[in-house]
Amino acid sequence: MLLISADPFIAYDVKDQGKKRWTSAAELPVGAPLLLAAGKLFMVSTEGDGALIGLNARTGREAWRSRLGKKLQVENMIAVDEKNVYVTVTDFGESRSATDFRTAVAAINHSTGRQTWLRRRDWGTDDYDVDGTVVGKRLIYTDSKMNITVRDTGTGEQLWSNKIGDDWQWTPAAADGLIFLPGENLTGVDMDSGDVRWTLPPNGRRGFDSPTYIGGVLYVRDHDGGVWAVNAKSGRKIWLCEDPGARQAPTEFVRVGPTLYGASAMDEGGIVALKAKNGEPRWNYNDNKTPGAPWHLAASGNRLLATHGSEIYALPAV
Fold this sequence. Notes:
Elements: E1 2-4, E2 9-12, E3 20-24, E4 35-37, E5 40-44, E6 52-56, E7 62-66, E8 72-80, E9 84-95, E10 101-109, E11 115-120, E12 131-135, E13 138-142, E14 147-152, E15 158-163, E16 173-175, E17 178-181, E18 186-190, E19 196-200, E20 212-214, E21 217-221, E22 227-231, E23 237-241, E24 250-256, E25 259-264, E26 271-275, E27 281-285, E28 295-300, E29 303-308, E30 311-316
């Protein structure tokens, strides 16, 4: 199925020419975050009740609605693993002024909708624009105070937190005991300690965007429009495609067989296909519609699923 957050919230059948499978009563703004695990879809309620909602992914029906407390409001989802959905929370029961409230991070069991743990964050830590991922027993997230934080998924205990520079607008990528940080250099840091393990400079080009980890390789755009493949363990460059054949280089990547596909955050770029072994451009697709709208991309079997503005496309993964 292809799931796109909008009002109405509709599930489309990928194998049956994009026919509607179900329509949910849940009200979602266009582009609202969705997480999927264990046959359930998760979203933050837009009804003002401060809840996290779990839907049955097959039917679109509500399975549970989790409210953590009368004065606790779920703000954003961070990530999901095989047991829990991890969220940020505002605690309206603790305040230092009429607008300064304590924030927290919580884990909610996605089988039952019940709270697993809740940990208060330091005063002054904003709850907006938190992006994260889960790898093994580590919850990793960045926030708008330009921090990267790592917590134990079982207890919520904070293991470490460091500043990440002057740009927080990226989603952390992590695998094999490392977290990969973009910026002027591409950097791999130890997941448990925060110590730097390797650094890759851009060799005269401008810095790196957020990387995507696929099968031991990092794929990442630089700010001069090139696409890099980097060995995630060592930080060594595998290849650099200086011109991927689009007016805007891709920022999202998926790999199907021998081909790497990328979607541009700008409408001028569209979808590009590169040979995964050497970065050689294969083709570029663009509908030349919806100026200013980003492209998004996912893979399902031998199909690529792409969105651009209000348009949805199924493309062959060839």
